[in-house]
Amino acid sequence: MSSVSSIESIPESSSSESLMTLEQFIIDRHEKFSHATGSFARLIRDVSVAAKIINHNIRRAGILDVRGETGTVNVQDERQKKLDWIADRELERALRKGGECCLVGSEEQPETIPLDPNREAKERYAVFFDPLDGSSNTDVNASVGTIFSVYTLPEHVQPDDAMDVVLRPGREQVAAGYVAYGSSTMFVFTTGDGVNGFTLDPSIGEFMLSHPDLKIPDEGRMYSINEADIEDFSPELRSFLSWLKKKDSETGARIRARYIGSFVSDFHRNLLTGGLYMYPSTADHPQGKLRLMYEANPMAFLVEQAGGRATNGHQRILDIDPTELHERTPLYIGSPSLVERAGAFLEGRGSESSSANA
Ligand code: AHG
Ligand code: MN
Ligand code: MN
Questions:
Q1: Mind listing the pLDDT tens digit of every residue in the chain (358 residues)?
Q2: Which residue of 54, 108, 230, 290 sits with most ligand 1 atoms within 8 Å of its CB, as the best mutation to test the pocket?
Q3: How far is the CA of 120 from the centre of ligand 2 (A)?
Q4: Index of the ligand 1 atom closest to the CA of residue 289
Q5: CA-wise closest residue to 172 among 149, 193, 195, 147
Q6: Please, are residues 34 and 192 in contact by the beta-carbon 8 Å criterion?
Q7: Looking at ligand 1, which atom is closest to the CA of residue 259?
Q8: I want to staple 94 with a disulfide (CB 3.0 to 4.6 A). Which of 19, 50, 122, 280 is the partner?
Q9: Residue 107: which of 67, 71, 57, 147 has the closest Cα?
Q10: Ligand 1 nearest atom to the CA of residue 284, by list position
Q11: 41: left (phi > 0), else alpha (psi -120 to 50), else beta?
Q12: How far is the CA of 131 from the centre of ligand 2 (A)?
């Protein structure tokens, strides 16, 4: 019969049994979700169910017939990938079946979609999402993501006339998150009380708390921008990029460039290691490429909760008043020192001679 000491010496199981599931976390933190009744917990569960189904399709893209294009062009005037369509369908289906959400707005749908206009519930949620971010990566086995943003609908609003009401500044979000389908699949979200990351354990089909209370490093050693567009960049932005590439006068270290083609993946890496993601105005996208309601706003909410910053180069993203569902915005998001420095250059206050530590 083994003694107590030998039992105590048994290490925690290497699998995730010693960690908390997403559902346990939400129940455990229930009272911290300012607006939450059980319906918010069920809403997050519904999004996580869709994430698992999307993950199942992505991880088998070469086996299932889900690669390539649908043959249609979406409202963004972009050729839609099959996985765009599948991710969009699974998110809408999970939120419709879950019954907690009464309106969705998707990158892949021209208008918002009322899900349950007759629902007389205390909490009524509107969810905006980019069902599959980084679509150009789907057929080449590179990382992609899903992004979601949650608002509560004012009591008096009927979902079918909600368009003008529900397009609220990002500071009014009650939750936001993303799923990163990378070397592992992670679910990262905030409800305004910090940022927590969960890793999918495929052996039990649960998202397990693996990255509690994430904070972005103030300094960043990586920057993400598509420099193929450099001829379109303003002189101020080009001056900032020159400054960014200087060797550190003390350590001789130089920042690294990383641009994956999926905002979620670049954002997630920068959140963990420190860094800056930029998508400025370009000739093809004079207002920037990323969409305010379901890319910039949710990630701005997350990054601020993690101690970072997000601007359009001049204004805080979360303070922008939206005017339409698919409007785009230039975006500078990540470590606070880099976002602030970019803003200084873009407003003509930056100097290439200043050292990285100035
Ligand atoms: P989406 O696939 O949802 O359209 O988003 C793609 C975005 C973003 O994820 C990525 O960083 C950027 O587009 C890449 O754009 P470029 O190819 O113009 O660099
Ligand atoms: Mn996207
Ligand atoms: Mn997309």
A1: 556 566 666 655 555 556 899 999 988 887 666 555 678 888 999 999 999 999 999 998 877 777 778 778 777 777 888 899 999 999 999 999 998 888 899 999 999 998 875 556 556 899 999 999 999 998 899 999 999 999 998 776 665 665 556 789 999 999 999 999 999 999 999 999 999 999 999 999 999 999 999 999 999 889 999 999 999 999 999 999 999 999 988 989 999 999 999 999 999 999 999 999 999 999 999 999 999 999 999 999 999 999 999 999 999 999 999 999 999 999 999 999 999 999 999 999 887 666 554 4
A2: 290
A3: 33
A4: 13
A5: 149
A6: yes
A7: 11
A8: 50
A9: 147
A10: 18
A11: alpha
A12: 8
What's the whole-model pTM score? 0.91
Backbone angles phi, psi at 207, to 5 degrees: -85, 120
Sorted by where each starts, the structural domains of the chain and their CATH numbers stand as: 19-211 (3.30.540.10), 222-352 (3.40.190.80)
Which among 136, 125, 205, 137 has a CA at the least distance from the CA of 173?
125
Is 8:193 a contact under the CB 8 Å cutoff? no
